UniProtKB/TrEMBL annotation:
<dbReference type="GO" id="GO:0005198">
    <property type="term" value="F:structural molecule activity"/>
</dbReference>
<comment type="similarity">
    <text>Belongs to the claudin family.</text>
</comment>
<dbReference type="InterPro" id="IPR004031">
    <property type="entry name" value="PMP22/EMP/MP20/Claudin"/>
</dbReference>
<keyword id="KW-1003">Cell membrane</keyword>
<dbReference type="InterPro" id="IPR017974">
    <property type="entry name" value="Claudin_CS"/>
</dbReference>
<protein>
    <recommendedName>
        <fullName>Claudin</fullName>
    </recommendedName>
</protein>
<dbReference type="InterPro" id="IPR006187">
    <property type="entry name" value="Claudin"/>
</dbReference>
<dbReference type="GO" id="GO:0005886">
    <property type="term" value="C:plasma membrane"/>
</dbReference>
<keyword id="KW-0965">Cell junction</keyword>
<feature type="transmembrane region" description="Helical">
    <location>
        <begin position="161"/>
        <end position="184"/>
    </location>
</feature>
<comment type="function">
    <text>Claudins function as major constituents of the tight junction complexes that regulate the permeability of epithelia.</text>
</comment>
<dbReference type="InterPro" id="IPR003548">
    <property type="entry name" value="Claudin1"/>
</dbReference>
<feature type="transmembrane region" description="Helical">
    <location>
        <begin position="119"/>
        <end position="141"/>
    </location>
</feature>
<dbReference type="GO" id="GO:0005923">
    <property type="term" value="C:bicellular tight junction"/>
</dbReference>
<feature type="transmembrane region" description="Helical">
    <location>
        <begin position="79"/>
        <end position="99"/>
    </location>
</feature>
<keyword id="KW-0796">Tight junction</keyword>
<dbReference type="Pfam" id="PF00822">
    <property type="entry name" value="PMP22_Claudin"/>
</dbReference>
Length: 211
């Protein structure tokens, strides 16, 4: 029962982490900057993500523009995109594999060993998915921090961490932790000893022994 609860907890955490990775990938707030001109009316917030850039005016109006061409993007941004998409696809595979190995599911009930291996394999896939997202978000955050502290970067174009990065870090951590719980949820095999051989009982002597 304890291993089943740990398995369920690991799957829920990994699944929530996978959903968070999808949300982080789709959000445009990977980095953000605020700019105010001479008049407060001209103040605006700038956001840049993996797929588009957005500008929000002080009036609340938001304008977004999708990046025109894939080949015009920086190679680091393309690599970040690829890692996040790979993380999402791996998480999708991990969901199906882990569900097959869950104890509460009816699949593969006749072979519990294979069922436990499927759960562990699903956990490993979730861990790889979380690591891919963690590498992508950390790499992107490192680039944002380096550009911010670069003295040659104009003050009006210095970006800071956006909310999508924090969501991505939290989601990647959930996926890794949930996958680890799935890998540890299988009970250890107990050492089996051969059954002891029974010896026939000596017939109890009712009479006295004679020489």
């Amino acid at each position: 029962m304890a291993s089943g609860g740990l398995q369920l907890l690991g799957f829920v955490m990994a699944f929530l982490g996978w959903i968070g990775i999808i949300i982080s990938t789709a959000m445009p707030q990977w980095k953000m900057a605020s700019y105010a001109g001479d008049n407060i009316v001209t103040a605006q917030a700038l956001y840049e993500g993996l797929w588009m850039s957005c500008a929000m005016q002080s009036t609340g109006q938001i304008q977004c523009k999708v990046y025109d061409s894939l080949f015009k993007l920086e190679s680091s941004l393309q690599a970040t995109r690829a890692l996040m998409v790979a993380s999402i696809l791996l998480g999708l595979v991990g969901v199906f594999v882990a569900v097959t190995g869950m104890k509460c599911m009816k699949c593969m009930e006749d072979d519990q060993v294979k069922k436990m291996r499927m759960a562990v394999f699903g956990g490993v896939i979730f861990i790889i998915s979380g690591l891919a997202a963690l590498v992508a978000t950390s790499w992107y955050g490192n680039r944002v921090a380096r550009a911010f502290y670069d003295p040659f970067t104009p003050v009006n174009t210095r970006f800071e961490f956006g909310s999508a990065l924090f969501i991505g870090w939290a989601a990647a951590s959930l996926a890794i932790l949930g996958g680890s719980f799935l890998c540890c949820s299988c009970p250890r095999r107990e050492t089996s000893y051969p059954p002891t051989r029974g010896y026939p009982k000596n017939a109890s002597s009712t009479g006295k022994d004679y020489v």
